[in-house]
Every structure is written in structure tokens, then in C-alpha cells.
Amino acid sequence: MNRRAPAPLPDAARRVLRGDRQALARLISQVENRDRSVLPAVRALYARSGHATVVGLTGPLGVGKSSILNLLLGHLRALRKRVGIVAVDPSSPFSGGSILGDRIRLERPAGDDGVFIRSMAARGHAGGVALATRETVRLLDAFGMEVILVETVGSGQSDVEIHEVASTSVVVVVPHLGDDVQSMKAGLFEIADVFCVNKADLPGADSAAKYLTEMTQLGVAKGRWRPQVIQTSTTPPRGISELWEAIAAHEAYLDSSGSRRGQDRQRLTGEILGLVRERVDASLAAALERDPDLQAVLDRVVARKIDPHTAADRLLAAVRRPK
Amino acid sequence: MLIAKPGLDGHDRGAKVVARALRDAGMEVIYAGLRQTPEEIVESALEEDVRLIGLSILSGAHMALFPRVLALLKQKRATRIRVFAGGIIPDEDAKRLKKMGIRAIFGPGASLDEIVATARKIAGPSRT
Ligand code: B12
Ligand SMILES: Nc1nc2c(ncn2[C@@H]2O[C@H](COP(=O)(O)OP(=O)(O)OP(=O)(O)O)[C@@H](O)[C@H]2O)c(=O)[nH]1
Ligand SMILES: [Mg+2]
Question: What's the CATH class of domain B2-123?
Fold first, then answer.
């Protein structure tokens, strides 16, 4: 062992950096299962991330997200880009189980090491991605994937969390979504960096694209990014290189406008606050559970002797008290 | 777990029914779909880090395709991944396949409850 070497990397991290696909797969599962024993590896790999272009594909059920993903994958492999894919599907609220079917649409030459595809169940997390999606993207990034494509749960309106994960968000719609396109204004519309009107082989694509283009012209300040609208079809393939060019143009804008850093900083702030909140929540709940004094406070709230606000003050004071 | 149909077999009803039953039992099932080569199946299983592969085949090509999947798993040192199967598989073939390492085999009319219970037993507590 070389003495001057920096602190040794955890074994799992070292294997991932060496290109060990099975080690990467295992690490992703452990992150999904919130296995804390892999935190050292995950932490060590953080410094190696931050290089990939992360593209989110979101939009209502069945609009063709996976089919587009498949064509983008082919396009990017032809450009010799190493591509990671994370495809999120919903979990059943009843059984917690899931059928992850996005993989059916993805084709690739056997033994192509330049691709890593991972399916992921949302496991009850709302927002269109799983809790583990962000961390998985980072692992793929550290693994050396240059472009990472994330497909969200196809639920429509509320799939906006992708915006916190992807550097470019593509919102996929189809002609004749009609009212849906209107109602989409609320959520998805605001996160779109690129609109993709898929199934352009069907009638109505031109008018849908025109409508979206008009919408994007409203209220965009000068010098700010104006979402591009691209028509695609996967049967037969059409518009895929244009779609990639629009994504690349947005990525270039992030750099030239200097907004990439701000975007990154804002997201990481959100992530850190989330992590802190999670821990504070857990320790507050534990304190409340354990501490007989606090249980007595709770009893008094139940008896309507004191109010919940006062009880919250006491709980906060109790955990702030040095031990 | 991963459910896949190797070879050129287009009978996907059984695979879908089984996938749904496993989902309803709380498992996460990656449905890889039709016309998968053994290489693709094993590659997918490794990327997805599954505990269990379910192969469905009604075409009669099981004696060629199943052993190939087992061999590839061995070659990749992924013997922690277990394999079970279903479809139209004559008894004597089923016997030989089980000797090779297929954990369980179900034919037409097999009970979904039994399939779920077997999957749980083979895969252990893992969701995938
Ligand atoms: C429906 C059917 C079709 C449909 C398929 C529709 C579809 N998308 O699935 C159609 C009409 C398309 C079709 C076509 C053909 N078929 Co056909 N078909 C059948 C039939 C009547 C029923 C199959 C079925 O869906 N059963 C219902 C499901 C729920 O049952 P299952 O698949 O058996 O699954 C159960 C178990 O096997 C098990 N299981 C299955 N998979 C898995 C996986 C795992 C992991 C586990 C744990 C369990 C498990 O659990 C399930 C629940 O109990 C069978 C005869 C039969 N009775 O089985 C013939 C049959 C399978 N077909 C047959 C043939 C020959 C054909 C054709 C070649 C006919 C032709 N000459 O064109 C074509 C080939 C198509 C192709 N591309 O592969 C033969 C196969 C003969 C063989 N293997 O030696 C059969 C057996 C009929 C026969 N007796 O000759 N077929
Ligand atoms: N006509 C037409 N059909 C398409 C096109 N792209 C996809 N489809 C079909 O649309 C259906 C859904 O495609 P997917 O790619 O699975 O859509 P998805 O958005 O990933 O679906 P979910 O993941 O279930 O939300 C399939 O039957 C495709 O064949 C297209 O360009 N034109
Ligand atoms: Mg999909």
C-alpha cells in the first residue's frame, strides 16, 4: 500500500470506479433499500460526480417516453456517448409491488459496456421519481456515464420533481391531449426546457406544436431560455437528432448564461435541507417517544390543558438542551 | 425479480399473468418482454441486481435456452441469482432442467398463489 495515497476508498466505491457493473448494480440496490452501510461508498463517490448531462423525460402515461428514450439511446451511442438510463415506474399503493415495463422498449447491442440501464419503482414517493433516483443518477455519473436519461412515472400533472434532478427537462406530449395540454400549464409546463410533441405521425401534431410554441412565447424575459418545441415520432423514427440538438442547446445555455452553477447550488441546498429535516424529524420523534417529561406534555395537550404550539416549543427546547 | 421470455416465442399471456400476481404480492417485477436472448436476460438481471429470474416459454425451445441462461450466470459469477420457470415444458424435460439448477417449473393451470409462495421462498425477503 502506498503511504502517500489519500484516504483509501471503500471497496464498493473502488470497484465502481474500476468499471465493475455488478458492483454498481449492487450499490444502487443498497441505496434504494436505504442501507446505511453503503454511505461511506456513496460519500466517496460524490466527488467523482457532476460531469454528466442529466436529461429528464416526463409526461403523461403512454405518450412514448420509453420509445423516445430508446431512439435517443441509439442516437447517443452513434455519437459514442456513454449513456446511463434510470426508468421509474409507479408502485402499487395496495401491495407495494410494481411492474417495471420500460425496459421492454429499450434495445441495444449485446455486451455494450457504454450503456447501463436501471429500472426503479417509485416506492410511494410522489413527484414522479423515486427517493433513490437522484443518488442513482450520481452513481451513474461517477461510473463515467456522460449522458444520463431519466424517465419519470407517467402520471402527468405532478411529475415535477425531475426538475430537481435533471439539468434539462423534456416534457413529452402527444397531439390531441386537448384539455390535458391546457391543464398541464399548472405543473409540467413550468419545468419544460424542451417540449417534445411525440406521435407526430398522427394528425394534429402541427397544431399542438403551434399551441405550445405560442405558450412558450408568453412571459419569457429577454435573454432567458425559451423552451424549444420539437416534433418527434418513433414509428417511423423522426425528429430524434433535432430533439438531442434542442437538449444540447439548453445545456449550452446553462453554461453560457452562468445559470448552471446557481441551479446546482439551489438543488443541493434543497437536498441538504431535506437530509437535515429527515434526521431532525427522526430525533424529535425519538425524543418524544423516550422522554417521560415530554410524554407528560403530550398528555396535557390531549387533555386540552395546553395547546400544540406550546408543546412544540417545549419539544424544541428539550432537544436543544445540551445533554 | 426479472420476468423474461427467451427465444422467438410470442405467447406472453402467462408471463404477464404471473408478473401481475407477483406485483400484487408486493414484489418489484421487471418485465423484460418478448424475444430476449439469454445474453440479454442475464445482462438485464445483472444491471437490475435481481435475486430471481422467471423464464416463460411455450415454444418448446426450453432445453436450448434455459441451460444457456444458467451457464451465463455461472460465467458472470452471479450464481446468487436464482432461476425458475413456467410454460409448456414436458415432465421429463422439467426433471432434467431442475437437475441443472432451475429451482421450480410450473405448467398450464398452475396456481398463482403457489407461484407467489415459491417465488418468495426462492428469493427470500428481497423485493426484487
Ligand atoms: C393462447 C395461445 C396462443 C395465442 C397467444 C396469445 C398471447 N399473446 O399469449 C396465439 C393465438 C397468438 C398463439 C399462437 C401460436 N401458438 Co399457441 N397457444 C395458446 C394456448 C391455447 C394457451 C396459452 C395461454 O395463453 N395460456 C394461458 C396462460 C395464463 O397460461 P400459461 O402460459 O401456460 O401460463 C401458466 C403456466 O404455464 C405458468 N407460467 C407461464 N410462464 C411462467 C413463467 C414463470 C416465471 C412461472 C413461475 C410460471 C409461468 O403459470 C401460468 C399460470 O398458471 C396454448 C395451449 C395451452 N393450453 O397452453 C397454445 C400453444 C402454447 N400454442 C402452440 C403453438 C404451436 C402456437 C403457434 C406456433 C401456432 C401456429 N402454428 O401458428 C403460434 C406461435 C405464436 C408465436 N409467435 O410464438 C402450442 C405449443 C406447442 C409446443 N410448445 O410444443 C400450444 C401448446 C398448443 C398446442 N397444444 O399445440 N397461441
Ligand atoms: N403512433 C405512434 N405510436 C407511438 C409512438 N411512440 C410510441 N408509440 C406507442 O405508444 C405506446 C406507449 O409507448 P411507450 O414508449 O411505452 O410510452 P411511455 O410514455 O414510456 O409509457 P409509460 O412508461 O407507461 O408512461 C406504445 O404502444 C408505442 O408503440 C409514435 O411516435 N407514434
Ligand atoms: Mg415508459
Answer: alpha beta
